[in-house]
Amino acid sequence: MHGPLPHSLHSLPSLHSLHPSRLLKSVAWLARWSLWLMLVVALLLATAWGALHGWIVPRIGDYRVQLQEQAGQALGIPVRIGSLTARSNGLIPAIELGDVTLLDAQGHTALRLPRVVVALSPRSLWHFGFEQLYIERPELDIRRTADGRIFVAGLLFSNAASDDTSAADWLFSQTEVVVRGGTLRWTDQLRGTPPLALDAVDVLLRNGSWRHSLRLDATPPPAWGERFTLMGRFRQPLLTTHSGHWQRWTGQLFANFQRIDTLQLRHYLHPHLDVQVAQGHGAVRAWVDVARGQVVGGSADIALADVRTTLGQRLPPLVLAQV
Asked: Is residue 309 a contact partner of residue 275, using CB atoms and an 8 Å limit?
């Protein structure tokens, strides 16, 4: 037979008299409003997606002039669009632009793009960008002036004396950029190297989560050798707000030349490598380490014939194999 309850148990409150704490109420309120916010955002995206497929895509040609003006405001230069069409491919619509022309400050054609295709997704709309940007057969001229400024198609892309990286920020914030069959001409007035023209240039650029990966395949002039590949993987500082500030990136660059004339290559080697190649032809693979935009080390796998070279001491990690 049970005895009477202890006096301390009589003083405990009943379950019916217990009330949620203030913290529990706050958590419940926050969860409820978070759920409502997610529902509102989902509804807005669904509405925008429906309007895009049902209204804008069938009438995309009517927005050509407005798109020209918006593109010009975003890039800071006049933009002309020859044709504009769109098609729906399931959830992701594609917009095709034909004969896109960018004009310089003097009104001359700085860059002509025969065909540009952009793919949209809910994620890209949320970030005011594209899911994929596809550019076909562009003709691109890149020039570095004696004061370190870089011009792409006559337009200022990078200035060592300025913090304006708006063009690069836009490019390196796109999810994926694809270039097919392009032509590229590189002129470096800073180092005084001969102009270099590359054909059949294919580029794949992917960006996301403070990381950037790049692949370039191109065919050099016949005197250089055969088609080569450049690949790079970089990460930017977590606290930076400018995706295009590549001077702060850290990562590695890889180059693969199946057949190259080193007499031509030596003009374009980074000065920190301190490699003086007098002659030689064959295959070259090289890995270059980059920290905050500066070359800090690397290694090379070289298989050359009739080679004559000297190596400096400014890059201790450089390793030569199969010479």
From this structure: yes
Terminal-residue alpha carbon distance, the chain: 98
Q: Are 150 and 143 in contact (CB under 8 A)?
A: yes
pLDDT digits (tens, 9 = 90+) for 201-255: 999 999 988 899 999 999 999 888 899 999 999 999 887 777 777 788 999 999 9
Cα 157 from Cα 138, distance rounded (Å): 17
**Among candidates 259, 182, 261, which has minimal Cα distance to 226?**
259
- The CA distances from residue 282 to 200, 248, 309, in Å, are 22, 34, 14
Residues 6+ apart with CB under 8 A from 289: 252, 295, 296, 297, 298, 317
The tally of CA atoms less than 13 A away on the side-chain side of residue 69 is 3
